[in-house]
Amino acid sequence: MSDSGHLTIQYNLRLSPELKDKISKSAKELNRSMNSDIVARLEESFEQKFEGLERTPTEELIKELAKRCSVLEIKMR
């Protein structure tokens, strides 16, 4: 268990040197560890995924979905 009482899982991650440098710089700017910066960024990416959709008209959502499906069809060919 971590100090905060939450269970944690350790995961080895391979990064390019350039990405590691970006994370290191960001973590220093935000006064947190690289691990904390990576976890915060991952958490944020899941939260933003559906942000604002409840205010988007259904017709616009359907158009966007159709557009994305057509792109997938092209990529799968």
Keyword list:
77 residues; mainly alpha; 61% helix; elongated
Could you walk me through the main structural features you see in this protein, from its secondary elements to its overall organization?
By secondary structure, the protein is an all-alpha fold. It has one domain (about 15-75). The protein contains 3 helices and no strands. It has helices spanning about 15-30, 35-50, 60-75. α1 packs across α2. The radius of gyration is 19 Å and the shape is elongated. The protein starts with 16 loop residues before the first helix and ends with a helix.
Structural class, by secondary structure, is mainly alpha
Fraction of residues in helices?
Answer: 55-70%
What is the subunit arrangement here? single chain
Q: Give the strand content.
A: under 5%
